Amino acid sequence: MNTRTNAEWLNALTGSGEPLNLALSDLRRYLVRAAAYALRRLGRGRSADTDPLAEDTAQDALSALLQRLHEFRGDSRFTTWAYKFAVHAALVAARRERWSRLSLDSVLQGPDLTQRLWPETAEELDPQQRALQGEVLATLREAVATQLTTRQRQALTAIVFDEVPLDELARHWGSNRNALYKLLHDARRKLKAHLASRDLDVQEMLELFGRTERPRR
Amino acid sequence: MDPVMLKRLLEKIAHTEDAEISCTECFDLLHECVDLEVTGRAMGQHWPRLQQHLEQCGVCRDEYETLRELVQLENDGRPADPDPSSS
After folding, report:
1. Which of helix, strand or coil describes residue B57?
2. How far apart are the first and last CA of chain A?
3. How distant is the Cα of A16 from the closest Cα of chain B, in angstroms?
4. Could you tell me what percentage of chain A is helix, strand and coil, using 3-state DSSP and rounding each to the nearest 5?
5. CA torsion sign, A157 to A159 to A164 to A169?
6. How many Å apart are CA A14 and CA A65, to the nearest integer?
7. Which of B2, B83, B74 is nearest to A80 (CA)?
8. How many CB atoms lie within 10 A of CB A186?
9. What's the CA dihedral at A30, A32, A35, A36 to 10 degrees?
10. Do A212 and B7 lie within an 8 Å CB cutoff?
11. What is the C-alpha separation between A96 and A149, in angstroms, rounded?
12. CA-CA distance, B64 to B29, in Å (whole number)?
């Protein structure tokens, strides 16, 4: 494939004739490579053959990218900007394929969030620590029961406890990623405010229950 | 109750900000931040808000990490093959 500067990419893709065709052909190969990488990273296939889903999602990505070509401001390499369309399309499609085999209705009918917030018997805890954990969980259950809508409880349960991908839950509910993120953000804000009103510091709560690994640096 | 999940919920609550960017805004920033990170440059004004969103949103985080790996491999002149058995 030809390597191009950002300006060369843009000139070719906004041009016509052979330079446009060549640029489109090269761009498509870049996108297939990116989509294939994203899919293999998920554990889909180990052979050198291209996953058919990579071809399909790369085509979707190409269409989306060309519609938004005017938005590229040169704040990265063009290929990085292009890759993100392919990665996004591939991961969305892979999740959809995976979760279409599962019943989200049955997942959502599982135990409510308040039913999940009960302490485990931890033999290594001393009675005071166990009592403190019990109090904290009771307050958290109260917050969940009194501050959140039914939808918010379902969404938090599904995403945090059942690890349903946000976009899949949004699709199941006929919503979209942004709207569901906003619903969850509102839920988190209400829980944080309620805990603060009970003089509970969430950082101290984390210390009480121990920390998980932070997902990012 | 799964203690790992409880801790995950508590961390999400603890790291909640009054104003957070949306998934669309995150997508719009991905390429710029990935290129800055991979080339070791200062992350810029958008990074704190992007990072906060990535901590809260698993699907966006997957996209960011995948894109970053892909661009890093390209930068290093290595083929884009995440198969662990090939490394």
Report:
1. coil
2. 34
3. 27
4. 70, 0, 30
5. positive
6. 12
7. B74
8. 15
9. -110
10. yes
11. 26
12. 10
Structure tokens at A75: 């704040």
A51 and chain B in contact, CB less than 8 A: no
Characterise B22 by phi-psi region: left (phi > 0), alpha (psi -120 to 50), beta (else).
Answer: beta
Question: What's the full length of chain A, in residues?
Answer: 217
A83–B1 C-beta distance less than 8 A:
no
- Selected for mutation to probe chain B from A6, A85, A87 (highest B CB count within 10 Å) is A87
Q: For B35-71, how does the pLDDT look when each residue is reduced to its tens digit (9 = 90+)?
A: 999 998 888 888 999 999 999 999 999 999 999 999 9
Give the whole-angstrom CA distance, residue A77 versus residue B52. 24
Alpha-carbon distances, residue B61 vs B7, B23, B26, B57 (angstroms) = 18, 10, 10, 6
Q: Which of B1, B4, B14, B2 is nearest to A210 (CA)?
A: B4
* Residue A74 identity (one-letter amino acid): G
Q: What is the ipTM, given to two decimal places?
A: 0.90
Cα–Cα distance between B29 and B50 in angstroms, integer? 7
| A10-37 residue pLDDT tens | 999 999 999 999 999 999 999 999 999 9
Of B13, B31, B70, which is closest to A37 when you measure between CB atoms? B70
